[in-house]
Design brief:
single chain, alpha+beta, Ribosomal Protein S8, Chain: A, domain 1, 2 domains, four-stranded mixed beta sheet, 4 strands
Length: 202
């Protein structure tokens, strides 16, 4: 019996080593470790996925746990995470997710440019991101990048008289992309990186 348990432990350690090599700490969200409530896990997961999308992480690992110690053996965190993953797919933050183990998921992130194509949701897990009273509150470099992105997006949509719609498209692009850029002293620099990434995708 102890030999079987030892083999199982060794195998689990091997799979963890593979995951560490494939995803690393930067692309792994371990919700099981911090023992959040279901609501806390949902909020944290949505924010993290939006951030990883603008960081162009491509694929990430989300660890929810199996719920072995949960009431009824059902993980509320896992259930909440699955709901978030489906919502993030509809919002064009991710393209797909697949069960990796009984307590984790591999998530494939959508390109940043897909955010502009996402349909408006009736409800938001998070409040809409703050935006400046006008784009004048942004630096000239950020506004220039945002204008180029808006023009590319309108060209992609086949809009002929794009000058009439550029400002509105700039605000729309800002609202979508800024949601994935967390607050911090270098937030505008990270926003610029996300805008450049979106332009590269177009």
């Amino acid at each position: 019996m102890s030999a079987r348990r030892s083999r199982t432990t060794n195998l689990a350690g091997l799979w963890q080593a593979f995951d560490d090599a494939r995803f690393g700490a930067e692309r792994t969200l371990n919700l099981r470790e911090s023992l959040p409530t279901a609501d806390e896990a949902a909020t944290r997961l949505e924010r993290w996925l939006r951030q990883k999308q603008v960081e162009h992480a491509e694929q990430v690992l989300v660890i929810t746990g199996r719920g072995n110690n949960s009431e009824g053996g059902v993980s509320r965190v896992r259930e909440a995470s699955i709901r978030v993953l489906h919502a993030m797919r509809r919002a064009n933050v991710i393209t797909e997710h697949a069960e990796h183990t009984a307590g984790s998921f591999v998530v494939t992130l959508a390109p940043v440019s897909a955010l502009a194509e996402a349909p408006k949701r009736r409800r938001h897990t998070l409040p809409p991101p703050p935006r400046p009273p006008s784009l004048d509150a942004l630096s000239e470099e950020t506004r220039t990048l945002l204008r180029h992105l808006a023009e590319n997006a309108l060209d992609h949509l086949g809009v002929r008289d794009r000058d009439r719609f550029v400002e509105g498209e700039m605000l729309r692009q800002f609202g979508a992309i800024a949601a994935g850029v967390p607050d911090g002293p270098d937030r505008e620099r990270r926003l610029q990186e996300a805008l450049r990434q979106a332009m590269d995708e177009y």
